[in-house]
Amino acid sequence: MLVSRRTLLRGARAGAFSLVTAKALPLVRAQALPKERADYKISIAPISLEIAPGKVIKTTAYNGVVPGPALRVKEGQPVRIEVTNASGYPNLVHSHGLMIPSQQDGATEEGSPIIEPGKSLTYEYVAKPAGTRWYHSHAMAMTDLNKSTYTGEFGFLIVEPAAGNPGGYDREVLLAAHHWDGHWVSMQDIKKGPPPDNGLEVMYHAATLGDRMLGHGEPIRVREGERVLFRVLNASGNMGISLALPGHRFKVLSLDGNPVPTTATVDILKLDVAERADVIVEMNNPGVWVFGSTADEDRNMGMGVVVEYAGRSGEPTWAPAKSNWDYTAFGRPDVPAAAPDETIGLKFEKIPGGRGGYNRWTINGKSWPDTNPLFTVLRGKRYRLVLNNDSGDEHPVHLHRHSFEITKVGDKPTSGVIKDTISLPRYSTAEVDFVADDPGPTLFHCHHQDHMDEGFAGLITYA
């Protein structure tokens, strides 16, 4: 029986939430298999992850590694992924950023089947569109910070273009950011300023960019003159990141796996939860550098990795970077977006839970499941969503099974930037357009795990 997020949250407040553990399975590497079986086999199971000497995280992961195995598939080709759930709790795997049928999407709200503990399920779909996608748990976590996107259950899913890779770089590096060792806190107890009625929030003790904390893993070794493609993913449960590589700049090719119309070069990458960026870095400044968070607190928790040029050694260098991240820098401000067939306003607000309690989140005054449906669309029509974040929290809002075009950020019009997740800073607005071209129930939600579990989700239905 599926239980609503609302019901589980009530149970959690009453102390009725418990974690079931399972015996770890032997490590199974992702491997290509004969067509009569799955293309990839994934096992979800508990592991002990050492992210620094003596710093061991008890978590769950895919095939015993974090990030999970990078799955590479060809655009337009059928894919079969067999998932065995030994995580100890009901689970799903969401293929994030793909245009696939609702039942294969890995979200119970859309009708995807749950994978019970000890059971297996095969996801089968045609891989599209090309680009940097990812896969991750879409289970409910509620108050349990050892479940779903708080864990090591995430990995890259690269859909290679049918026409072949355009190249322009010497090699690629995959980097996924994550925060670890989370705990619920009353913000009133740790710093001044939060509203006195604000509920519990999640804070962390450790972070990684890759599989180890900064300074405790192998460096990224480069050669002078190399052009390196970094595919960067924010796979955190609920924390945005801002990254820099001092002495170098990022040429942004794609956002959320989709090529941008303007390949701007920037000093930082600002990625909210679930966002991705494909960037080229020209290795033209020999030395040993920290590629890490621009926030001292995050970097001190481990958010970073050392970049080491051939023939160089010594302590890695860090220097503050300028902050110049703006979605519109990658768009076409002088080219108006196509006119929508309908405009829909969506307002996001918090219902504070009070000290020691849990917040609730609403879309147009309603929380999940009362946002089922959120609204109904007609196939082939273009819809403009006017997003209004009327809260003091940042929200990366994600549209399943579709992409959208950013048409306005604040009061700045733009066009051409195609994404599946957009970050809304506190008390901000944005507008995005999507075409209803993939029939079936479609989930729309904040990608902060706690916000989604606290009601920030809605279902778009097709007429």
Folded structure, characterized:
By secondary structure, the protein is mainly beta. The chain is built from 4 helices and 33 strands. Strands 9, 12, 14, 16, 17, 18 and 20 form a 7-stranded mixed beta sheet that branches. Strand 1 (40-52) and strand 2 form a beta hairpin.
In short:
With 463 residues, the protein is mainly beta.
Q: Main β-sheet, in a few words?
A: 7 strands, mixed
CATH topology of the largest domain: Immunoglobulin-like
Q: How many structural domains does the protein architecture include?
A: 3
Oligomer: single chain
The level-1 CATH class of the largest domain: Mainly Beta
Number of helices: 4
Give the helix/strand layout.
Blueprint: H1 5-13, E1 40-52, E2 55-62, E3 68-74, E4 78-85, E5 93-96, E6 120-126, E7 131-137, E8 154-160, E9 171-180, E10 183-185, H2 187-190, E11 201-203, E12 206-209, E13 220-222, E14 227-234, E15 241-244, E16 250-255, E17 258-259, E18 265-266, E19 268-271, E20 276-282, E21 288-293, H3 296-300, E22 304-309, E23 342-351, E24 360-363, E25 375-377, E26 382-389, E27 395-399, E28 404-409, E29 412-419, E30 421-424, E31 428-435, E32 442-446, H4 449-453, E33 457-462
Parallel strand pairs: 1-4, 3-8, 9-14, 13-22, 23-26, 25-33
Antiparallel strand pairs: 1-2, 4-6, 5-7, 7-8, 9-12, 10-11, 14-20, 15-19, 15-21, 16-17, 16-18, 16-20, 21-22, 23-24, 26-31, 27-30, 27-32, 28-29, 28-31, 32-33
